[in-house]
Amino acid sequence: MKTRAIFCGLALLALGISPAFAQQTNQDPSIAQRKDNQQDRIAQGVQSGQLTAGETKRLEQGEAGLNREEHNMRSADNGHLTTADRATLDRQQNRLSNRIYDDKHNGQTAHYGNNEVGQRRQNQQDRIAQGIRSGHLTAGQTARLERQQQSINHEDAAMRKADGGKLTAGDKAALNQRQNNASKNIYDKKHSK
């Protein structure tokens, strides 16, 4: 039994989770590690452009929902998860994992273009991806930031459609102002802890 405890402790350390931290936060290390892995996969998809803002928003809303459900399960049982709770969370994490894979491999990619507006969009996505990866952004915060980026992307597309595929100087100024607001939101959310 003592050997098993030592092995579990070493496994947690190999995963980068302190056994004391796992006990202190009342987190199941395997559930916590799955969450971290899912967030890393989403961040990589955002960074690479494999995930669009809309796809990222939906994935992060799913992750936030799982977090709320886990919290509710723990609240119902004095901070612990039952075997049935763990099985339910595992199934839901499997579904989310499959959605991440499907969204990353569905052929839809985020195209930003080589112009100033496109570069701003890319920079914002890189900052969001970094916030996901570092843990400074929660799933809910990321979903809200991606909803804002999705809205800006839709506005960009509508402006281009109205002007024969090009952005006017006024369009660029309006999009830059929206990105300034989005940039402030990203900063505020990453530094709100």
Walkthrough of the structure:
This protein has about 190 residues and is mainly α. It has one domain (about 1-190). The chain has eight helices and no strands. It has helices at about 1-15, 20-25, 30-50, 55-75, 85-105, 115-135, 140-160, 170-190. Helix 3 packs antiparallel against helix 6 (about 115-135), helix 4 (about 55-75) runs antiparallel to helix 7 and helix 6 packs parallel to helix 8.
Low-confidence stretches: 1-25
Count of helix runs: 8
Order of helices and strands: HHHHHHHH
What gross morphology would you assign? elongated
* Total number of domains: 1
Secondary structure blueprint with pairings:
Layout: H1 2-14, H2 19-24, H3 29-48, H4 53-76, H5 83-104, H6 116-134, H7 139-162, H8 169-190
Helix pairs in contact: 3-4, 3-5, 3-6, 4-5, 4-7, 6-7, 6-8, 7-8
In brief:
By secondary structure, the protein is mainly alpha-helical. 78% of the residues lie in helices and 0% in strands. The protein has helices at 2-14, 19-24, 29-48, 53-76, 83-104, 116-134, 139-162, 169-190.
Structural features:
193 residues, mainly alpha, 8 helices, elongated, disordered N terminus
